[in-house]
Amino acid sequence: MTTTTKTTGAPTATALVKLTDVSKYYGNIRALQGVSLEVSAGEITCVLGDNGAGKSTLIKIIAGLHRHDAGTFEIEGEETVLANPRAALDRGIATVYQDLAVVPLMPVWRNFFLGSEPTKGRGPFRRLDVDLMRATTRAELLRMGIDLRDVDQPIGTLSGGERQCVAIARAVYFGAKVLVLDEPTAALGVKQSGVVLKYVAAARDAGLGVVLITHNPHHAHLVGDRFVLLKRGTMAGSHTRDSITLDELTRQMAGGSELDELSHELERVAESGPDNASGPTAGTTAP
User: Fold this and answer.
1) What is the pLDDT of residues 144-196, one digit of tens each?
2) How many Å separate Cα 235 from the centre of its chain?
3) Cα separation, 40 vs 177, whole angstroms
4) 155 and 166 Cβ atoms separated by less than 8 Å
5) Which end is more exposed in the chain, N or C (fewer Cβ atoms within 10 Å of the end residue's Cβ)?
6) Is the pLDDT of residue 76 over 70?
7) How many whole angstroms from its chain centre is CA 287?
8) CB-based contact 136:174 (threshold 8 Å)
């Protein structure tokens, strides 16, 4: 495992979230073993890995859905064990999953406040404060640089990138200190991916600590400050932005030495292929 840390003369601020040698087992199945990760305010920590690398399990531990079996989990320097996702939210950790958990037929403003709707009036006259929700949604989206045509339109009519951006703005509004994004660009085209990455960077610039789960090293290197590579539940590398190039990050993500071995094997097959594939050489007669 390669570990590189930044060294500066200024004192290091306490990390918002810090995992040290965290492991998770499901019976005798090892999902994670010895994984360490640090998320600081105003930084994006990218977690990269192929399918089955343990990214989803790591998200569930940070989000409070599952408890870790070994290692330490610290929030702002305090060792903790999250009982459930609500406890994570109360500690300022918001998770935006790939499916976004939105109601497609509801307006944007209803989805923005889903589960946390403000009300006005008392007793039998208590009702949703629709005007406040509309105005707040519009203002918060604009503050993040998202200019929607109409917050009354069903959120299902928005593009995938716009829905991701609404979810990010919602997490910021409700006081998240740490934003965990699960493959936000996985199902998006090039242009929409760029839009989402722009708002991910905006969340970082707003002072949030961001955990970006992705399998795309190009997206990660574009916005990331730290990179954690997972492979079959273990750490394959930990780097800072100034210590690794995009080409090297892509190589490690793709398998590193395993990819080199495959490349050499394919070259040998290509060199021997024509000889094996050819029949009797020209000028000779088969018996």
Assistant:
1) 777 887 899 998 888 878 888 888 888 888 888 999 998 888 877 788 888 88
2) 16
3) 10
4) yes
5) C
6) yes
7) 65
8) no
